[in-house]
Specification:
Strand content: under 5%
Structural class: mainly alpha
Order of helices and strands: HHHHHHEEHHHHH
Mean pLDDT: 85
Strand order of the largest sheet: 1-2
Radius of gyration: 20 Å
Length: 315
């Protein structure tokens, strides 16, 4: 099984190297058209990987599992869509962070690249830790379920119209305490040296906040995928393949985030639904295809309702 984990990590490393080292070697402002094309590419790569899982599991090449090819493919797709949908909330946060630190659009891709790289490492730790906990303590699943329901309620009652003062963010305060900060931005540099002294730039501060914020999002998304499958490989790969396309999705949607004002309620429902699924799994195990259908329907209704009932523009 280890060889498949290594092969997947090599695949991810190769795609990231091509992304930054070839296709986005020069800093440039990513337009909606380019972002949509890359979003299509990442979705296509994910679907091809899903087809590979269908073959590998179907032929019995993955040891230590009783999943058929169709079961593995369906669980991957469900986990992928869960992470993709929950990432929508992450996009709103990233837009707020870039706006607060006044990061030029031309450098946002590079910040997100390193943010995704860090997210892969943290997600791997969460998946391995979550799988180990579930293996030794079955009751942890109920804790995960309760956590998702709590997150859904917290999201439901959060006030979107209040701007967050990131100067009071714990990570920002710690960074300012231990390192000198500059408001100057020179190229895509994370650090600047002036008078022999090294300063942290707003790009690095925004990266720190994005990384720590992603950890909190992972606390929701990883348990949610464990509700779909207990296979750590499927949990990890579906999660990573979803966040790999998060950067292009951000640039595709950043200009029209305000139009999806009702999507929040769809995400609340998805978190609550998955949480309830975890809590009742001993009484009734909801089939994966039903979970997938409910999640896709909730997302579709959230997006459709946002366009049917547009938000009132403030004066």
């Amino acid at each position: 099984m280890l060889i498949f984990w290594i092969a997947f990590l090599i695949l991810v490393a190769a795609m990231l190297a091509l992304d930054l080292g070839v296709f986005n070697k020069k800093d440039h402002e990513i337009g909606v058209g380019e972002a949509l094309r890359w979003t299509g590419v990442w979705i296509g790569v994910s679907l091809l990987f899903n087809a590979a899982l269908y073959f590998l599991y179907g032929k019995g090449y993955i040891p230590g599992t009783e999943l058929s090819g169709s079961e593995a493919a369906l669980e991957f797709l469900t986990g992928y869509i869960i992470e993709k949908s929950l990432s929508m909330d992450n996009i709103f946060v990233m837009a707020a962070i870039f706006g607060y630190f006044k990061i030029p659009k031309i450098y946002q891709h590079r910040v997100l690249f390193w943010g995704i790289l860090g997210a892969i490492i943290f997600r791997g730790v969460f998946v391995i830790g979550g799988a180990a906990l579930l293996h030794h303590f079955e009751w942890i699943m109920y804790v995960f379920g309760a956590l998702l329901i709590f997150s859904a309620l917290k999201m439901l009652f959060s006030k979107e119209d209040e701007e967050q003062d990131l100067s009071q963010n714990t990570v920002v305060k710690l960074a300012k305490k231990f390192f000198p900060i500059t408001t100057k931005i020179e190229g895509h540099a994370f650090f600047l040296k002036e008078n022999g002294k090294r300063f942290i730039t707003p790009l690095f501060l925004s990266l720190l906040v994005i990384e720590t914020t992603d950890i909190f999002f992972a606390v929701d998304s990883i348990p949610a995928i464990f509700a779909v499958t207990r296979d750590p490989f499927i949990v990890f790969t579906s999660n990573i393949m979803a966040i790999l396309g998060l950067r292009s999705l951000y640039f595709a949607l950043a200009a029209m985030l305000g139009k999806f004002h009702l999507l929040k309620y769809a995400l609340v429902f998805i978190l609550g639904f998955v949480g309830v699924k975890m809590l009742i799994m001993e009484l009734y195990k909801i089939p994966t295809w039903i979970s997938l259908s409910v999640i896709v329907l909730a997302l579709g209704l959230g997006i459709a309702a946002s366009f049917m009932f547009p938000a009132k523009e403030e004066k």
